[in-house]
Write a structure and sequence with these properties.
mainly beta, Jelly Rolls, 1 helix, 18 strands, hydrolase, carbohydrate metabolism, cellulase activity, GH11/12
């Protein structure tokens, strides 16, 4: 997967479709934040954990608010667990996503779903500050392709699976709700839509989840049994991040880890 590309995360706001989607010194001490780069440029990124992850600032929609600001920084890394934070202030259109600060996994991908036994992930996060006008989501973004050489958010993408842990201020997924689903012991609203050339399924938590721990493979299993998703599809990209439309906030991830087994 290329190191820099614009993610088209499938998102909408009140019925309007929107296209979303230097080497660090590892440390287990959050007191050594200064050893990690502050990412403030539009396409700034940083390798974390000897290449296991890449942290992106990814201001793909900043043209909708050229005066907006955002910075993203890793704060610690231990084992396979990354801590990071992003702080932003965005105005402009409330129906346009401005960015997708995210962590991208670089290992264990390009397998068919049938060859994946589990995708364990833990994500503990919080808003340390958030304006009353905030419109944003916090979400996983998983990409499938017919080919192992495919990439996320491209003409080679066939499916995008989003898992929304948070939706504030009226943000919602692309498409329309087609039902509810119970996955991993939790209740989710299930949406289906189309963005560019791929189909999007979005699982939206019925209440905000700030401490998630589970097997993401369960979402694919659900779609295979209920929506006919083929297990011959390849998992080619896995991200986790936040999409702000408008407002200001500081989002802190105290622990994030994901593996594809």
């Amino acid at each position: 997967m290329v190191s820099k590309f614009v993610f088209l995360a499938a998102t909408m706001f009140v019925g309007q479709s929107v296209l979303a989607t230097p080497l660090a010194v590892d440390s287990s001490s959050s007191g050594l934040e200064k050893r990690f780069s502050v990412l403030s440029g539009q396409w700034d990124s940083e390798s974390e954990g000897s290449g296991r992850y890449t942290l992106y600032n990814n201001l793909w929609g900043q043209s909708y608010d050229t005066s907006g600001k955002q910075s993203t920084q890793a704060t610690s890394y231990s084992g396979t667990t990354l801590a990071w934070k992003t702080t932003y202030s965005w105005a402009g259109s409330s129906s346009q996503v401005k960015s997708y600060a995210d962590v991208t996994l670089n290992t264990g991908l390009r397998k068919q779903l049938s060859a994946i036994s589990s995708i364990p992930s833990t994500w503990k996060w919080s808003y340390t500050s958030a304006s009353s006008s905030l419109i944003a989501d916090v979400s996983y973004d998983l990409w499938l392709s017919n080919s192992a050489s495919g990439t996320g958010s491209s003409s080679t993408s066939t499916y995008e699976i989003m898992i929304w842990l948070s939706s504030r201020g009226g943000a919602g997924p692309a498409g329309s709700q087609i039902g509810t689903a119970t996955v991993g012991g939790r209740s989710w609203k299930l949406y289906k839509g189309t963005v560019s050339t791929w189909t999007v399924y979005s699982f939206v938590a019925t209440s905000e989840i700030t401490s998630y721990s589970g097997d993401l493979k369960a979402f694919f299993t659900y779609l295979s049994s209920s929506q006919g998703l083929s297990t011959s599809q390849y998992l080619v990209a896995a991200q986790a991040g936040t999409e702000p439309f408008v407002g200001s906030a500081s989002l802190t991830t105290s622990a994030y880890t994901i593996s594809v087994n």
